[in-house]
Design brief:
- The structure is a homodimer.
- A 4-stranded antiparallel sheet of chain A has the order 1-3-4-2, covered by helices on one side.
- Chain A contains 5 helices and 4 strands.
- By secondary structure, chain A is an alpha+beta fold.
- In chain A, 43% of the residues lie in helices and 17% in strands.
- The model of chain A has no long low-confidence stretch (mean pLDDT 89).
- In chain A, a hairpin with a 2-residue loop joins strand 3 and strand 4.
- Chain A binds chain B through residues 18-19, 22-23, 25-28, 31, 91-95, 97-99, 101-103, and chain B through 18-19, 22-23, 25-28, 31, 91-95, 97-99, 101-103.
């Protein structure tokens, strides 16, 4: 990890319960964040397009991070965010697929 | 349907959003109800064993019913409850399996 990069406290998904992940996902804004992140690689928070204020968005990103759904890393002035897809698939098989592929 | 049976207002799952179902499932008591119902056929509410008061349990059953997760039918003095498994699987493929099979 370079001197400019700093990973933000990442929870151990092994200790996260299903109900915590369901609570994190059960909000329209957070579901939208997850859907947008599922489309690509790590992206700066600001590139996730949401119809909420910056502070509301920050709250939702934090909720997702504390539930182990996303990870974040500061790189200079940017905060990159990505979905912990492989780890989530290993801990809760099929959950993210079901949520992302819902009609 | 016999004269003694009365189905309680059942929501149209086609109009239920993923986020509503996730909200319904994102509670430890409701998750426990779903897990117990997944084990068998329709059972009287009282046979679902929960560590909460009767009124709290009723609230949780109602939340699950309004989200389309369970259906209920009164039969004399009994209220039978069952998981709308096939309909949920059709509307949100893989979701219930993922939730039920989580370690």
């Amino acid at each position: 990890m370079g001197a400019q990069q700093q990973e933000i406290d990442q929870v151990d998904l092994g200790g996260v319960e299903m109900v915590t992940v369901l609570q994190a996902l059960s909000d329209p804004v957070r579901l939208e964040i997850v859907r947008q992140l599922a489309c690509g690689d790590a992206m700066p928070c600001g590139q996730v397009r949401l119809d909420v204020t910056k502070s509301t968005a920050s709250h939702h990103f934090k909720t997702l991070r504390l539930a182990g759904v996303i990870a974040q890393q500061d790189e200079g002035t940017r905060r990159n965010t990505w979905l912990r897809r492989d780890e989530l698939d290993a801990r809760f098989p099929g959950l993210l697929d079901a949520v992302l592929h819902a009609g």
